[in-house]
Design goal:
It contains 13 helices and twelve strands. The protein is of the alpha+beta class. It starts with a strand and ends with a helix.
Length: about 450
């Protein structure tokens, strides 16, 4: 009997990054795109709602909340529902996957409230079939700290408790234990049971787990080789005994002939004595028992190997989920940084001009230290090559002065020897061309 898997995780904001993963607008590496068409949403959205992110916001807007939602407040809870890999494959093979999905949706609605369950997507394009459910933690009842306030005499009549957003209450320790218990009861019909209650087992790293599995596999392979070697020796002994029996029968048949009666009798007697000694003491019976025991041990080892393969597959699935979660967090950080940069451009218009000027100075050929001085308004002396993107050529600058100048509209321009750099490049290349032409005429 396998285990039922139920995992809850808090999410902030509209959780758009996870929506991209669940709805496959971003294709994860561990998913098979040829099976993505088998994925399906099990919750029907309202008419004006198109996706999971909008479903979360729609529930918040229509729940009748009276308090303003905080910036860091949890607005949704992600729930992953599945089972042991081998058991989920058996459920799909038996044609009970739709029934399993419906029982999961029923349990979600009964546990968290039908209105709070805004999405439940079945994923069939990964190794193990599983559900990604989303609930909005809307609860009705008094806040815990209100119970403490009841000891104080109230002068005014208060309103009856209304709906409120509280993920901590939904994911309290007592509730999490209750979810695991009731979910195991719901999944018992599919041969899935609850994990060990109060287990002190600790997670180990993926690398250490794989290394231990490989070591166990090598030990099992060595044991199997030894058992097969013993089995082969036992089979040889049994084959030798069978050949001795056949020889004895043949010799007895020959002993009946009159011609070989005397010699056959002696030969048969000697062979018979040898065979009787071989068969004495239940030696063959003992070898058969040992052979049967070896077969049982091999079957047990094969069962262990199958369980190890199932554990490895489960670990791969967990690792893939962690990688997806890390990628989503990375994408969210990039989005946040871009939003911050857009606000900086909006609040400080000159900030973008400074960034563009810094990039241009580096492209011309100034190093970072020289560029930093130029951006602070200093004049620097420079000797070396300067590159022009317009002419796609380098011009030699011999002890020139460079400075970044700001005009009346706060635009920034780089000047070389008090001349705009574009004009300076033009003069340098014209001078160089004239000298080349003069040299050509002289020749």
């Amino acid at each position: 009997m396998g285990y039922a898997v139920l995992h809850l995780e808090k999410a902030k904001d509209a959780d758009s990054g996870m929506s991209a993963h669940i709805e496959r607008t971003i294709q994860p590496k561990n998913a098979n795109p040829k099976r993505t068409y088998l994925n399906r949403e099990l919750i029907q959205f309202p008419e004006e709602v198109r996706n999971r992110t909008e479903a979360i916001q729609h529930r918040l807007n229509t729940a009748g909340l009276t308090r303003k939602i905080g910036k860091n407040q949890v607005q949704a809870i992600r729930i992953v529902l599945t089972g042991t890999h081998a058991d989920m494959e058996q459920i799909e093979k038996n044609g009970r996957l739709d029934e399993w999905c419906q029982d999961n949706v029923d349990w979600l609605r009964k546990t968290y409230g039908a209105d709070n369950v805004v999405s439940a997507v079945l994923h069939m394009d990964e190794e193990t079939p599983h559900l990604h459910a989303t609930i909005v933690p809307i609860v009705i009842g008094e806040r815990k700290k209100q119970k403490k306030e009841q000891t104080v005499k109230k002068r005014y009549r208060t309103k009856a408790p209304g709906p409120r957003l509280c993920a901590d209450e939904v994911m309290s320790r007592a509730n999490l234990i209750r979810y695991q218990d009731t979910y195991a009861v719901q999944m018992a019909a599919y041969g899935l049971q609850r994990g060990t209650k109060g287990s002190e087992a600790q997670h180990i790293s993926t690398h250490e787990y794989y290394r231990s599995l490989i070591a166990q596999g090598e030990n099992l392979q060595a044991n199997i080789s030894q058992l097969l070697e013993k089995q082969e020796k036992a089979s040889l002994v049994i084959a030798e005994a069978e050949r001795a029996k056949k020889d004895l029968a043949r010799i007895k048949a020959e002993a009946k002939t009159e011609e070989l009666k005397n010699s056959a009798t002696k030969t048969a007697t000697s062979v018979l004595n040898g065979v009787n000694s071989l068969l004495s003491g239940n030696k063959v019976s003992r070898l058969k028992k040992e052979n049967a025991q070896l077969h049982r041990e091999i079957e047990d080892l094969n069962d262990q190997i199958e369980r190890l393969h199932a554990d490895i597959q489960q670990l791969k699935d967990n690792h893939a989920r962690e990688m997806n979660r890390a990628n989503e967090q990375h994408q969210q950080e990039i989005i946040n940084l871009k939003r911050i940069l857009d606000k900086a451009y909006q609040w400080f218009p000159s900030f973008k001009r400074f960034l563009n000027m810094e990039r241009e100075c580096l492209q011309y050929g100034f190093n970072e230290e020289q560029t930093d001085k130029l951006m602070h308004g200093h004049t620097i002396n420079y000797s070396g090559w300067l590159h022009s993107n317009e002419y796609r050529r380098n011009a030699l600058a011999d002890n020139v002065s460079a400075r970044v100048i700001r005009d009346e509209k706060r635009n920034l321009f780089l000047h070389i020897n008090q001349t705009p750099i574009a004009q300076w490049f033009k003069e340098q290349f014209r001078i160089g061309q004239s000298e080349s032409q003069r040299k050509g005429i002289r020749r």
